[in-house]
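pasting for ref
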Amino acid sequence: MPPLEDEHVLDECHEATLQFARGGTQGAEGLGYAESWYVENVLEELDSPGEWFYNATTRTLFYFPNATHEEDGGDVGHPAPPASSGFVATSLQVLIKVSGSHQHPVRDLAFSGLTLRDAASTSFSPHGLPSGGDWALPRQAAISLTGTDGVRIAANLFTHLDGNAIFAGGSHRRLAIESNEFAWLGGSAIALWGETSPCLNSNCTVALPKGVPMGPDGREGTQPMGTTVLGNLAREIGIWQKQSSFFFQAVSAMTTLRANVVFNGPRAALNFNDGFGGGDEIAQNLLLNMCRESSDHGPWNSWDRVPYITTLRTGRPSTLPLGRRLHHNFIIANYHAQEAVDTDDGSSFLTVDSNVLAYGENGLKAVFGGHHLHHHTNLYLFVGTCFDFTAFKGFASSFINNTCLFRTGYYSDCNLTPTFGHRVHGNHVASRDGKLDDVCGDSFAEWQKRGHDVHTTLDRWPVAVEVAAQAERLVLAGLRT
């Protein structure tokens, strides 16, 4: 074809349609189709270690090896051929599969001391939308569980898996995932995905139309409940699937996430796709170096766009979930994350207390309909603003007894309607120079004289050793809880 700068060629160009054989369901972003797309198996693009091209006509595999050091058999900076022991390719996406049901669960299994690696990619496998959050994912992983009670996955190494490591779909009770290491994963480390029905009343005479993918009724209990995720180490996750995390939860309840260390991932470390039944506890975790390929979310992210019917809060059918608590965590929201704790669209009923939350643009975030978000006794280090929440009458949030070192500003209760019930008071806030000259047109001192934001103090940033000591006190207090 002649070069495009030839004017005559432009006149002859026509629209064309590309037909893809598979895929198109990844990413989701709240839609039923993908906004991102991929092209693979192009010989001209074979230019980086780890890539390959397969010529189906000649049945020839071309591979760019990733050995780049002398000890691997090649010169430094030049790839060596594959090891003499052989070249192995895998087509297995699931290495261990356990299948039961809510009525007849598989009981009391343990997987311990294993190394699970080299499961095949799931990037183009069928994906689904589990609930009202932004994510889509496949219903499988290297260990895929359905319908269990008392399964324990402990002290294993999950590495070089091109999809998810652990998937728990449907009903689960007493699932324990403890003391594992996850490294170099194509997708997420752990994903929970419960099931609901389309019923809108007790005998299901009123229901959503057929074909609606996400019903509101969670009363049958066909969800993961009471899962424990304890003492795991996760790093280098989301190599292929960028919409991924260490832990993902959808249509699940009463999860305990405690004492996990997570770093180096493209998006949030912990992602809660909905509010469902609540009752989750997130404590004593260290999260950092996340959101490296998005500058979005935070190490924690949640949505709550869809109401669900459960009996967890009162024992009777209700759309009100149990509360969640996030406490005594150390979270570093670097890579220009929005917040350390990003409570996104509609996120509600979360108490955030006694955490060290560093960087990010906001401390507390309650926007797009979020409510009942209560932050107290936290240490916010060098955030843009201490909080940003909108007011809804009868749906109060609060920011109380926090220490906040801000870079940009502190809104105080400037934009909040007092009768709506929001509470902002008793905080210790600090700017670089110890000044806050504009709070709704007044200095902070004049604003307080009018009776606003009582018992809040303003100072300049403390020295580093004082900040470290205060962070240490909060962390050690968490270890004693």
